[in-house]
Every structure is written in C-alpha cells, then in structure tokens.
Amino acid sequence: MRGALERRLNAIWYGERTPDFGLRALESLYAPLARARSWWLGHTVEQSLVGKPIVVVGNITAGGTGKTPLIIRLCQLLQAAGLKPGVVTRGYGRRGRAPLSVGAGQGAETAGDEPLLIWRRCRVPVRVDRARERAARRLLSEGVDVVLCDDGLQRARLPRELEICVVDATRGLGNRRLLPAGPLREPAGRLQEVDAVIGNGGALAGFESLPHAAMVLEPGGCLEVAGTGQMDLGQLRGMAQRLTVHALAAIAHPQRFFDMLHDLGIVHRPHAFPDHHRFTRSDLPATGDQSMLLMTEKDAVKCERLALGNAWYIPVDARLPADWERWFLARVQAMHTQVS
Q: What is the value of pTM for the model shown?
C-alpha cells in the first residue's frame, strides 16, 4: 500500500500528472499550518543552544535527497581537521521512541538504518532522539566540538550556525508545489535563506544565484552483507556476467541505485521498495549458484540479520569540490573558535 502511494505521488510530483482537486485542497490547508508551525517553533527556540556550533543538513522536499552520504563526508572532513563531530538524528523508521546513543551491538531496528550507517562509517557519537535539541545538548555536554543535525531544516526550535540544503539534481523541486500536491515542505524561496545548496548528482540548473556545489556519489568496491568477502568493481562485473543479479533498493529514489549499476555495466533485475523498508526473507528473491543479491549500504545494515547467501552491497562516497570543502571547514572552525 505504502509503495503504491509513493509511486502515485511521485508520478504527480516529478512527472506529468496534474494534482487532483483533493490534493490541491489539502495543499491549501498545509500552507498556513506549516507557516503557523514555523512561527511557533521560531518563538520557542532552545536558548541554551544559541551560538553553539550546530550545522543542519536538510532538504525542503519530502523524502531523502542524499543527506546521509554528505553527513558522512562532513564528519570525515571535521575529523581530518582535528575536530570531534557528533550527529543528531530522529532515526526515522526505527522501532521505539526512546532516545539512545548508537553503538556496537545495535541493529537497524532499534537505532535506525541511517544512524547506524553513519556510526559504522565514521565512529563518531550519534544520538537518536525525536527532540533534536535535547540530543544536541547531550552531545555538546559529552565534548563534541561540532553537532551535525541530520534533517531539521524545518525545525526552527533548534538554533543553528550553518544551514545546508541538499537537492536531488535529477528530480530538482519537482512541480514546486507544497505537500501533498507537490514534494515541497516549504516554499522554494526557502533556498534563498540557507548558507549552501548541494546538488546530489550534479550541478543544479536554475540555482546559479545561490551558493551551491555539485556532489557526486562514487561507488567503492563491493562487500559481502553477512561476511567478510570483498571484491573490486571489475570482479563484480565479471561475476554479474555469469549470474542473475537481483538489485534491491529501499531508498528515497531507488532508480538512482539502478542507474549507477547500469553505468557500471552490471545487468540486473531491479527490486524497488519504499524508503526505510524493513526487509524480511519473504521480500527477497531466492539466490543460489546462479544468482546473487546486490544492494545499497543503507539496505545492507538491515539485511545482515537475515543471514543471506551470496548477498553483496556497494558503498558510495560523496565527492565535493575542494573549494567548497575549504569554505565549509573555514566556517566551522570560525564557529569553534568563537565558542572556545
């Protein structure tokens, strides 16, 4: 049901279909409610966090746009500069609502797929909490130098010194309408207020007046989901020529993963699922001597508990222009110096 609804809405938001009267009517209700919520949150700002080194990485469209790879790259940049970053996140899709710190022995069910992925890749403090202000206070009290907030562009209650908005370069802002007639959480003019706009997948047409940069996701090698096996992309192509490849993607834009495989020369059968989908064995095609499973790293952290045979994933790394990375580090180091 959820997958069918997502496909219907995506056809309207990013395709040629026109939103019907019902969606347009709901949009007219959403707009004033969103403004009222923003006003209320803006008047209940967490004063204890004002001026603290907090960076919000978010988007103005519903669904994911590639924030997680960007946050991982920002953590790596900060670590290389001798700073101690931490990440706060809501942990969408996990079971339970209790705040927690992500660590060894936890699974995606309790921590969330994206928080667990960030922690495993960066080994930085990751705090999962619906109240991201409380999570930020916790990390700062534990000695974190810079707090990166995964999502939260619309959470005006959380003060921030730097705002970064990620936009899918392929989809853009769709039909530029507000929810649910379009994908926008806020009017497109919100992009004029952020410090930087990142185009996931390339340059953003129509955003030349904004401080923006292109981000490219580069695939690394190929790793076994439930083991220690690894191979480079050439070996993967060789294996794919001999076997039937079932490609799985439960991300906001599954076609991006399938397009990457196509560009790598890997013939595959695509299997798209809703974002944050909790996999069971019944979801997955059977594999044997003549077939294999191939998935994203985000999906692998959920599937490793299923003890799958011949299942692999391809990690990706975010690549940004060197001058943008220098700009980001300079801004963060200035924040850190001011607080210190």
A: 0.95
